[in-house]
Design goal:
The protein is of the alpha+beta class. It has one helix and six strands; from the N terminus they run αββββββ. The protein has a domain of about 70 residues: Copper binding periplasmic protein CusF (OB fold (Dihydrolipoamide Acetyltransferase, E2P)), CATH 2.40.50.
Length: about 120
């Protein structure tokens, strides 16, 4: 009985540590479509990841969709192991143009030029 209890505790510990140590890559989005996202990591290396069929997207702390993400946005990915391999189940992104949760996404300012100067 003691061996069975020890084995069960070991299995729970391994499962829990795998969950807590889950891969959460982050970086700047290079490209994204309905099946894949490519990001540049802080090391400068580009990595591509497959998206789950029902991948959840958060953009600036609000539910969104993959088609709203653009190159230059920063993203943290939540990964999950499936029979087909690792897939992204959550993309938590911040717009490149947004500086805080209350700011609206805007186009970059147009430079002002004055004739004669």
């Amino acid at each position: 009985m003691k061996v069975r209890t020890t084995m069960a505790a070991f299995e729970i510990a391994v499962t829990l540590s795998a969950f807590l140590l889950a891969d959460s890559p982050s970086g700047k989005i290079v490209s994204v479509d309905s099946s894949q996202i490519k990001i540049t990591m802080s090391s400068g290396k580009d990595n591509s990841y497959s998206l789950a069929d029902k991948c959840k997207v958060m953009l600036n702390n609000k539910e969104s969709s993959v088609d709203k993400l653009t190159a230059g946005d920063t993203a943290t990915l939540t990964m999950e192991s499936r029979s087909s391999g690792q897939v992204v189940t959550l993309i938590d992104a911040k717009s490149a143009e947004t500086k805080g949760p209350d700011k609206k996404r805007t186009a970059p300012p147009v430079p002002l030029t004055i004739d004669g100067f």
